[in-house]
Structures are given as C-alpha cells and as structure tokens.
Amino acid sequence: MPGKSKRRTPVKVSDLRMDELLRPIxxxxxxxxxxxxRCNYRCAFCFQPNFRDDLPEHIWREKLTPLYPGLENVVLHxxxxxLVPAFREFCELINGRxxxxxxxLFTNGYKFxxxxxxxxxxxxxxxxxxxNACTPETYARVNRRDHYHAVLDNVRRFRALAGDVAVDFSFxxxxxxxxxxPGFLRLAADHGVDRVRYFFDxxxxxxxxxxxxxxxxxxxxxxxxLPDLEVWGLEVFxxxxxxxxxxxxxxxxxxxxxxxxxxxVGVNGDAxxxxxxxxxxIGNLNDSSLEEIWNSPGALAxxxxxxxxxxxxxxxxxxxxxxxxxVIGARRDTAARTADDRVxxxxxALLSRPDxx
Length: 357
Ligand SMILES: C[S@@+](CC[C@H](N)C(=O)[O-])C[C@H]1O[C@@H](n2cnc3c(N)ncnc32)[C@H](O)[C@@H]1O
Ligand code: SF4
Fold this sequence. Notes:
Layout: H1 18-21, E1 30-34, H2 57-63, E2 73-77, H3 85-95, E3 102-107, H4 114-123, E4 124-130, H5 136-143, H6 148-161, E5 166-173, H7 181-190, E6 195-200, H8 209-225, E7 230-232, H9 234-242, H10 258-261, E8 262-265, E9 270-272, E10 283-284, H11 290-294, H12 297-308, E11 336-337, E12 344-345
Bound molecules: S-adenosylmethionine (SAM) and iron/sulfur cluster.
Residues 39, 45-48, 77-78, 80, 106-108, 130, 170, 172, 199, 201, 352, 354 line the site of S-adenosylmethionine.
Protein name: Radical SAM core domain-containing protein
Domain Radical SAM core: 25-230
InterPro entries: 4Fe4S-binding_SPASM_dom, Aldolase_TIM, Elp3/MiaA/NifB-like_rSAM, Radical_SAM_PqqE_MftC-like, rSAM, rSAM_sf
C-alpha cells in the first residue's frame, strides 16, 4: 500500500570507489523540508528550539528547484505545515513541475482543512496525525490544546476520501500519556488507520520501568487482536528503555540507503541525508550549491560508511547496530558509546527525531 514503509534490502557490505561515491543530484528522490517552526500548538514534549523560525524563501523557491522534476516523495515536516501559506505555495511549485510526486505530511490535524484533504487525497503517500493520546483529557494535557474531537472529525473526513493514501497516527510516549499507549491502538483501529507510530525522546522517558513493562505487555495483547494494524516503534522503544538488543528489522537503519537518495532540509538551511543525521549536516543551502552539498567531504564520508555497513554516523535512538547500545539515560550534556566501545556517538545523534516511517 502506498505510504507503508518500503521493504528495504539489507545493506550490502561493499567498498565503492571515490568516483562511485560521487553522485548526481538527480539521484535525490525524496526531499524532506521544514519550511517553518511556527505552530498553533505547544505540545509538552515538543523538541523544537523555538516556534518562529522560517526557512529563507530563496532556498525553496530557487535553490532546491532543480530537484523538483525528478522527485518521487516530498515529506512536509514543521512546525505545523497546515498553518503556513508557504507550504501550500511550495507544494504547488512542485506540482507544477512534477505530476508523479507524492506528498507526505506530519500534522497535528487541527487545521487540516479541505485544501489539505484534497491535496493529500489526490497526491498523498501518507498523512501522519500526531495525536499522542486517546482521551480528550490526556490530549489536552500533552498537546496543550482542547482540540481532540475536532482533530478526530478531520481524520474521519479524510479517511472517507483518502482511498489508498495511508492514514497514520503517532504517539510520543512520555510519563503523562504512557497509560494510553495500549488504548491508542484501539482508537487507531476505530478510525481505519493504516499505521501507528510510537515515538519517544530519550530525554523524556517515563521513569517507572515496571509501569513501562506492564504497558508494553498490555499493548502486545491488543496488537494480537488487531493483526491488520501496522505498529511501528514499540520494539525499539523497549530495547532503548531496557538496554536490550533490537532486531534489525525494527530499526530505521535496516537496509537504509538514504545517503544515496534522500535529502533533509532543516529550517536554518542545513542539509543532511536524513533527520537523524541532522547533527552532522553535509552542507548549508544558504552558502553552498546543491551539487557541492550532495558530494561534500562530509557527504562522501557518510555515504561510504553506509555503503560499508559501518555505524559511526548512523547510531541514534532509532538506528544503529542491533546489539545493545547504552543510549539509555543519555542526556544532552553527556556522550555515549556503542556496545563495542569503538565509536563515540555524538549526543545530538541520540535525540529522537521522527522521520518518514
Ligand atoms: C515536530 S512535529 C512537526 C509536525 C506537526 N506539527 C506535528 O506535530 O505532527 C513532527 C513530529 O515530531 C513529533 N515530536 C515532537 N516532539 C518530539 C519529541 N520530543 N520526541 C519525539 N517525537 C517528537 C511530533 O509528535 C510529530 O509527530
Ligand atoms: S504540533 Fe508539532 S510542532 Fe507543534 S508543538 Fe506539537 S509537536 Fe511541536
């Protein structure tokens, strides 16, 4: 189904020559952008540094335009994409140059109006509604807005239109909503959702490990009752909380080739291969061309490491070797090492950032 995570083949261990590591920008098939950090919500857990910055317009109106005709996927992150006219203009700019591209969207859903419903029903891959709760009370506490029913009304309207566009729900697990992790699956099933994503933040893990264990057991039971609902993120959450190995297929790094075809543009113009690699940008679009960035020394080092199946860049909350790695308890002011103690993991890389799963 469109919007479902692609089955990726495991990374082959090879050793590309330098000329093979250099890639044309035409290889970029997926573009992720944060056009603004502005938002109509102030979720208690939100990782944003502020709620005002915008991506300079020349970057998406000019710098990125050579990519638009060849893109297969555009993923809109924010800030809140439905709030800001620039997101509509950006989508229309791409639509005018590419009639095959599919859009995906992370949204709190409150302003998911007729425009967005029509765009996503016609050209969407997935719409992720960030709910984070399955009752109005908990919704108001964690999202700090009293819009639970209004958002679910928007979801129902869109579900009726969406056809084969995936409708996803997401939930950032914190101490305040842990008790609603199991019930969230039922809410999703009741709304015809295709996939539930559970995210977490290593800085905001619920402190009571016994309660987490009971919650995960209760959630596993409900999962068994809902075999058609795709659920992402609980295995990696469990592994990171309890310091246990996570099977490769549950990690974002499984078969990942993003250094070959993916570009993620942060609100300050930093370009990286994906949101998890935001700590190690391959360049900045304010002062470099796309070609310079895509084949910068940093880009080549990351591409080579990925091609070899090495982990010095791709170790974070959702990626990395399958073995246990002691990210638990990592804080912004500390560093952590992988299990084999060879690779120093920059602590920024340990911060949780949702992607296009
Ligand atoms: C920053 S939001 C931007 C898009 C939109 N405003 C939304 O909420 O969906 C993108 C995603 O990040 C998630 N998120 C926010 N803060 C987080 C955190 N501290 N840890 C993990 N995920 C987080 C949100 O729940 C949402 O699914
Ligand atoms: S709606 Fe999204 S961007 Fe806005 S505060 Fe919540 S998580 Fe952050």
